[in-house]
Amino acid sequence: MAPRPYWKGYLKLSLVTCAVSLTPATTDREKVRFHTVNAETGNRVRSRYVDAETGKPVADEQEVRGYEIEEGRYVMIEDEELEAVGLESTRTIDIAEFVPADSIEWYWYDKAYYLMPDDEVAEEAYAVIREAMAATETVGISRLVLARRERAVMLQPHGKGIVLWTLRYGDEVRDPTEVYGEVREKKTEPKLVSLVETLIGDLTRPWSEKLVRDPVQEHLKEIIAAHAKRKKRKAPKRKEADEPPEPASNVVSIMDALKKSISQEKKRKKG
């Protein structure tokens, strides 16, 4: 069963407009979620906002957004004021410009959505925009309001569809040069690089979603199923953390370690 669209609106490029819908590309529906429960009664515990000073509950209509300008002093902002600085239309993805597809580094990407034509009439315009971006190796840049927050977004052609990525804002991304700037350039030994290439080749395999399976979630589901059947089950014994390997002290030890790794990998494959 196909998931329900998360958002519906319009994709606009100059005078070309078509109806589209958004569906999240990822889901956490299968994740195990716990609730806080009263151990004595078995009932769920409900949380409430209370005044930090008086300790009294705060009614929903009394909750407003506040920005702390100094310790203990807040400027209160009304929802209408926030809406006034947002996009005029929250239902249109208006592509304002295009950039080369390879010019946006991965760390700007936030969350992915599948953008689809919402009806048969929209299919042609949608396909034309998608194919034109693919042919020119560009991606579209626009803005969109999702979950009451305005986001910069990137539209990327992908096969028969278009993937919409929300992008992080400039103040959310650290400049990599600030982190890597202190790393010294190290001249590598060609023989060592060659050995690592061999090891990479031995460890290379086709991509599969099994490579990123979550064993913790699997164990949690087993525990929950056992409790649901009122069976006592011991929690899986947690593996002791491996001792960190000792750093190589010289080139010879790295060379020996790589040769040994390649040999072990070959034996594993034969086995």
Structure, described:
The protein is built from 6 helices and 10 strands, in the order E-E-E-E-H-E-E-E-H-E-E-E-H-H-H-H. Among the domains are: 7-27 and 85-172, Ku70, Chain: A, Domain 2 (Beta Barrel), CATH 2.40.290; 186-238 and 249-270, no CATH class. The longest helix has 20 residues, at 251-270. It has helices spanning 79-84, 120-136, 176-180, 190-203, 215-228, 251-270, and strands at residues 7-13, 16-24, 65-70, 73-77, 92-94, 97-100, 109-117, 138-146, 149-158, 161-167. It is extended and about 70 Å long. Helix 4 runs parallel beside helix 6 (251-270). The strands form 2 sheets. It has an 8-stranded mixed β-sheet. It has a two-stranded antiparallel ribbon with strand order 3-4. By secondary structure, it is of the alpha+beta class.
Q: Count the beta strands.
A: 10
Rg over CA atoms:
27 Å
Mean pLDDT, to the nearest integer, reads 84
Question: Architecture of the domain at 7-27 and 85-172, according to CATH?
Answer: Beta Barrel
